[in-house]
Amino acid sequence: MDDLDIPDGEPKFKVTDRRFWARKEQGERKNGERAPRKSDLPSYVEQLQLQMEAQREKLKERLQQLEDEKSSFRRRLNEENERRLQTEKHRLAEILLEVMDHLDAAINSVEETQDIKSLLEGVKLTRSDLLTRLGKLGVEKMNSSGQLFDPQRHEAVMTKHVEFEQDGLVIEEIRPGYVSGDVVVRPAQVVVGKSDNE
Question: Residue 146 contacts by C-beta under 8 Å, 6 or more apart in sequence?
């Protein structure tokens, strides 16, 4: 008989795969066999699990840090916006108070001299000063007369019968409007031309 020939019947030895993960995949678990413990894992898999846990913890910490930074940034932004709003309110109040001082001076002058003409001059100077100060803030008066009616910039208070060529144009300005750049601060109140031919 050749050494490589296997005799008929039972083999002399049996190979059993004792790796628990291999038995688990094959659905083999003997009665009373304990569940695998972490210490049973191969060292490489164990290292990967430890690295994964460490990365998960780092990720949690980073997410919490980002959330804290976002909250802090939002709080700082709100505080900065509030400071800017207060600063702008104070600037506006300063302008209005100076206008008030000019009006008080004009009133006092008239009360002392009984000169209505000086009151009128004082009011005109105060108005001119106020327009100059508004201009420094970027607020300017709109020129509406003769312009095509624009509901974004004009408020029509009435219409007036006109010739066809003036249809849809601002015929008269009742109250001036003001703009700051492209933003309408206050729309102009206007009379709009309307012809019978449509």
Answer: 169, 170
